[in-house]
Amino acid sequence: MTAWFGRTLDGMYGLLIEEQVLRDLERMCRHAGSAETGGILVGRYSGNLAVAAVREATPPPLDSQRGASWFNRGIAGLRDKLRRRWGSMERTYYLGEWHYHPSVHLEPSATDIGQMFTIRDDSNYHCAAPVMVIFGQRGDGDERPIRAFVFARSNAYAEIVQLPNNSMQRTALSSAADAER
After folding, report:
1. pLDDT digits (tens, 9 = 90+) for 5-44
2. What is the CA radius of gyration of the chain?
3. What are phi and psi of 89, to 5 degrees?
4. Rounded CA gap, 156 and 145, in Å?
5. CA-to-CA separations, 172 to 4, 6, 84, 168, 175, in angstroms, rounded
6. Structural domain tally of the chain?
7. What is the rounded distance in angstroms from the CA atom of residue 101 to the CA atom of residue 146?
8. Contact 111, 101 (CB under 8 A)
9. Which residues, listed in sequence order, are joined to residue 43 by a DSSP beta bridge?
10. Domain of 151: which CATH number?
């Protein structure tokens, strides 16, 4: 499993999910079985704010609720966790949400879309362009399907499309180096 990197078709927004984060997400999706699950994405932006680099994906907070076709992320412990990340030597912060659909249907629901716009507009999140990453059910021997979206404009959102591996490696490495600065 390698890092996942994508960009919106207009090139305005990029997303890098580090390899270790993908392994953690794979484990959480497998553990969820036939129920939806999710959490938040923590990381930082590149110096030019064009790429969100995900350094951590949290498990579902303990007060989360879930079922086969729905998930309500709780909040227990998130404020303290984000406060600690912000105060650490390598300052990281809230970038968005992730969740797992135990099916091949990877479209954000109307509820998902509404919640992401609410998060974008809520000054407590300090996130003008939150991302949502949806993981799907893995087929036999298949890679886990992933779709990502950014919610940056008034009532619109854009898909972040994964780049092919050869261009992904060059772009992701330069984006990750930019995020370090």
Report:
1. 999 999 999 999 999 999 999 999 999 999 999 999 999 9
2. 15
3. -60, -45
4. 23
5. 8, 9, 26, 6, 5
6. 1
7. 10
8. no
9. 54, 93
10. 3.40.140.10
Cβ 148 vs Cβ 160: under 8 Å = yes
Phi, psi values for residue 173, rounded to 5° = -65, -45
Contacts of 138 (CB under 8 A, 6+ apart): 29, 144, 145
Domain of 67? 4-180
Closest C-alpha among 43, 42, 102 to residue 67: 102
Nearest in space to 148 (alpha carbons), one of 92, 98, 111 = 98
Give one DSSP letter per residue of 120-143, joined into a string. Answer: HH-TTT--SS-EEEEE-PPPTTPP
Burial 146-167, CB ≥16 within 10 A → b, else e: bbbbbbbeeeebbebebbeeee
- Summarised one tens digit per residue, pLDDT across range 44-68 is 999 888 999 999 999 999 999 999 8
**Burial class of residue 74 (count of CB atoms within 10 Å of its CB; 0-12, 13-18, 19+):** middle
pTM of the model: 0.88
